[in-house]
Amino acid sequence: CKHPPYRAIIHNMQRLASQIIGSSIFSVHAGGKIAEVTGILVRRKDLKVQLFAVKPVDNDKKQFLLSSDIRAYDGNRLIIDSYQDMSEEDELIRHHELIKDGGKLIGSKVVTQSGKHLGKVLDFSIDTTHHFANKIHVRATWPQRLIHERLIIDRSDIVDITDNKIIVRDATVKAKSTAKVLPA
Q: Which of 67, 89, 127, 145 is 20 to 30 A from 12, alpha carbon to alpha carbon?
C-alpha cells in the first residue's frame, strides 16, 4: 500500500498569517529545524503570497523562501526539502521590487471607496494550497469598536491596494421600493 505524498495529506487549509509568523521551518533533508519565519511578503496586485522572510538558525543573515518551495504546513512548522530552498535577496532578482517594497499587509490602513476609514489590518488568512491572502482581519476604528472588535473582509471586496492603504467596496443596503413607510 503506497501512501499519498506528504503534501496531499496536510496541505489543504487556511491559516492566519499570525500563526505562520514565528513558525519553524523544517527541512526533510536535514531532518530538523533550519530556520524560523519572520515575515510574509504579499504581491499587491493579486494578493499572492510570494515570499516568506526567514531567519536561519545557524546565522543572522535575512533570507527568503518562495511559497512554491513549501511542501506542507504541519502544525507549527513549514516543511521544505532542504536548506538550498532558502535564498538571499540578491538571488531573487524577479522579487527585488517586492522585497524592497516590503509586501506587508499587516498594519495597512483600510478605507472604503467613499473614503470612510475602517481601521488597520491586524491579520489575514492564507489559502495554503494556492498561497493567496483570502480575507483580511481589520481592527475597527474607535467608535466602531463599540459594535464590533474586528471586521473580516473577503478578497473579492478589495478594490485596490496602494502603498499605504487598502481600498474596499462600500457596504450598501438596497431597500425594496415597495416598502411601506409607517407614519410617525
A: 89
Q: Which three cell numbers stand for residue 17?
A: 498569517
**Distance separating alpha carbons of residues 165 and 184, to the nearest angstrom:** 43
**Strand, coil or helix: 34:** strand
DSSP E strand stretches across the chain? 14-16, 24-27, 32-43, 48-56, 63-66, 70-74, 77-80, 86-87, 109-112, 117-127, 132-140, 150-154, 158-161, 165-168
pTM, two decimals, is 0.79
| DSSP secondary structure code for residue 110 in this structure | E
Neighbour-count burial of 112, counting CB atoms closer than 10 A to its CB (0-12 exposed, 13-18 middle, 19+ buried): middle
59-110 pLDDT per residue, tens: 888 999 999 999 998 888 999 999 999 999 999 999 999 998 888 889 999 9
